[in-house]
């Protein structure tokens, strides 16, 4: 089936590149890309804040046209997005436009679901070894070695923290708090080994529980 893309002459180059990226990415990877739609939404939001209702309606109609061109726009989340668009076009208030953002994000999550179990497994493979190294060296009470291993653990955590944050904010919060307290105890003069040991136990238990949730779901 041949697909025709209508592009308005005054469409901004940045928007045009995003739109073309949407078309090519969708056909090549079967992933629904919504970058161009969020650009239109941002324009509409800006217009609303400037109390330019007509411009906001124009931006929303463009968004609606491109959204309706997505083959899966009639999904459950897509229907909610369509309703939000109709409401906002009829009455472009700040609340109505912000509702589109929420529904459009939900549609994106519906169309491109995240495999949290796979991310947990990758997290375990990357983070767990460095945490175990920190545990082993902590027994020596050699503060320089502990600092080295903690910095390595922190760097590995930083590269993989999104996997935990996206799947469980409660685990993520515990990790961030424990790491902060461990760092403070490590930098104290003299180093507070008792506090460090307590926070290390929390880090281990949090990671084990996070990984365990993945295994239990299998």
Could you state the order of secondary-structure elements as H and E?
HHHHHHHHH
Number of helices: 9
Give the end-to-end Cα distance, rounded to a whole number of Å.
40 Å
Write down the Rg.
24 Å
Please give the number of β-strands: 0
Major sheet, described briefly?
Answer: none
**Main structural class:** mainly alpha
Task: Note poorly predicted spans.
Answer: 1-29, 214-218
Any overview of this molecule?
The protein is mainly alpha-helical. The protein contains nine helices and no strands. Helix 6 runs antiparallel to helix 9 and helix 7 packs antiparallel against helix 8. The protein is elongated, with a radius of gyration of 24 Å. It starts with 12 loop residues before the first helix and ends with a helix.
Fold blueprint:
Layout: H1 13-29, H2 35-49, H3 53-68, H4 76-90, H5 94-111, H6 116-138, H7 143-167, H8 169-187, H9 193-217
Helix pairs in contact: 1-2, 2-3, 2-5, 3-4, 4-5, 6-7, 6-9, 7-8, 8-9
């Amino acid at each position: 089936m041949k697909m025709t893309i209508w592009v308005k002459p005054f469409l901004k180059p940045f928007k045009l590149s995003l739109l073309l990226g949407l078309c090519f990415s969708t056909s090549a990877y079967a992933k629904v890309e919504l970058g161009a739609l969020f650009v239109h939404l941002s324009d509409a939001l800006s217009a609303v804040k400037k109390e330019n209702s007509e411009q906001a309606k124009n931006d929303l109609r463009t968004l609606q046209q491109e959204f309706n061109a997505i083959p899966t726009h009639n999904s459950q989340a897509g229907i909610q997005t369509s309703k939000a668009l109709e409401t906002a076009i009829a009455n472009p208030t700040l609340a109505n436009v912000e509702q589109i953002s929420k529904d459009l994000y939900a549609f994106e999550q519906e169309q491109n679901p995240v495999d949290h179990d796979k991310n947990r497994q990758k997290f375990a493979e990357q983070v767990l070894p460095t945490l175990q190294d920190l545990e082993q060296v902590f027994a020596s009470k050699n503060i320089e070695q502990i600092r080295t291993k903690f910095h390595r653990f922190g760097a590995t955590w930083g590269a993989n923290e999104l996997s935990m944050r996206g799947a469980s904010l409660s685990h993520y919060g515990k990790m961030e708090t424990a790491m902060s307290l461990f760092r403070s105890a490590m930098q104290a003069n003299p180093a507070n080994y008792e506090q460090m040991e307590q926070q290390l136990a929390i880090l281990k238990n949090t990671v084990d529980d996070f990984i365990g949730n993945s295994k239990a779901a299998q």
